[in-house]
Design a protein that fits this description.
274 residues; alpha/beta; Alpha/beta knot; Trp Operon Repressor, Chain A; 2 domains; five-stranded parallel sheet; two-stranded antiparallel sheet; 9 strands; 26% helix; 15% strand; binds S-adenosylmethionine
Length: 274
């Protein structure tokens, strides 16, 4: 897989990809990440990348020509001829569709991803129209530039590539994991895995040594040695945390009868049957 990052601050990324899973994927040749300095695609003495907005108003806007030329130099098919199963051009934008784990899963199947990082008031909209297949926002807040958003997308996508994580199941059994993964209900299936199928819920809390820290003991269930007790505790906590922090996820989650029973006890007013 190859990422091309179009930016006015290529140095921004120098350390972002040097650690952990990402650096291993790059070292193994599984992922290539190239940055492209927009200023190299300008033709004036001041290497101008921005200009005042038509219609007046605040700030400056990234001019279309340098971005258009930067993407043209990337040897990627034009928007009309692009194969959406192989490659995509993305505009990072606070006005974009939300970036989610499902979008990261989609992107992880592609061979080539071009990320255009905006700055100032944003990018001339004709770049979106002419070059981009998707406009993506990483959250409901405004960043100073698209570089952080691009780094987040690269990270979330690369860890989903086959072999990128030591344990391939890790990305299936964590927060926002695959909706259809059935919970490992059957103790006969063996010891509890690092997590039980999240089925679209948030992950449960994790603990490690020491068993007691600042007067707080690790929950008894986790040191019980009983797989079924551990499974039940983890599932309960996953449901409890999702209900507390992200109740919106419950509507799409894979809920068993046991889950619904737990939720009814946690929040009796919720109707979770449908
Ligand atoms: N005027 C824009 C608006 O109100 O939507 C904000 C522009 S922002 C200061 C500059 C650049 O940061 C954007 O062009 C975009 O590339 C990036 N950016 C800001 N917030 C973002 C977000 N939530 N997700 C992705 N990119 C974002």
């Amino acid at each position: 897989m190859r990422f091309d990052l179009v930016t006015i601050f290529p140095d921004f990324f120098t350390s972002s990809f040097r650690y952990g899973i990402l650096s291993r994927a790059v070292a193994a040749g599984q992922v290539q990440i190239a940055t492209h300095d927009l200023r190299s695609f300008t033709h004036d003495r001041h290497r101008t990348v921005d200009d005042r907005p038509f219609g007046g108003g605040e700030g400056m806007v990234l001019k279309p020509e340098p971005i258009f030329d930067a993407v043209a130099a990337l040897d990627i098919a034009s928007k009309e001829h692009r194969d959406p199963t192989q490659e995509t051009v993305i505009l990072l934008s606070a006005q974009g569709k939300p970036f989610t784990q499902a979008v990261a899963q989609d992107l992880s199947k592609l061979k080539r991803i071009v990320l255009i990082c905006g700055r100032y008031e944003g990018v001339d909209e004709r770049i979106n129209d002419l070059l981009c297949d998707r406009e993506i926002s990483i959250g409901d807040y405004v960043l100073s530039g698209g570089e952080l958003a691009a780094a987040i997308i690269v990270d979330a996508v690369v860890r989903l590539l086959p072999g990128a994580l030591g344990n391939p199941d890790s990305s299936r059994f964590e927060s926002f994991g695959e909706i259809d993964v059935p919970d490992n209900q059957d103790p006969a299936l063996g010891p509890p895995r690092s997590t039980h199928g999240s089925g679209g819920l948030l992950d449960y809390p994790h603990y490690t040594r020491p068993a007691e820290f600042h007067g707080r003991a690790v929950p008894q269930a986790l040191s019980s040695g009983n797989h079924e007790i551990i499974r039940k505790w983890r599932r309960h906590m996953s449901l409890e945390k999702t209900l507390r922090n992200r109740p919106d996820l419950l509507a799409k989650a894979h809920l068993t009868k046991e889950d619904q029973e737990i939720l009814r006890k946690l929040a009796p007013q919720n109707n979770l049957d449908d």
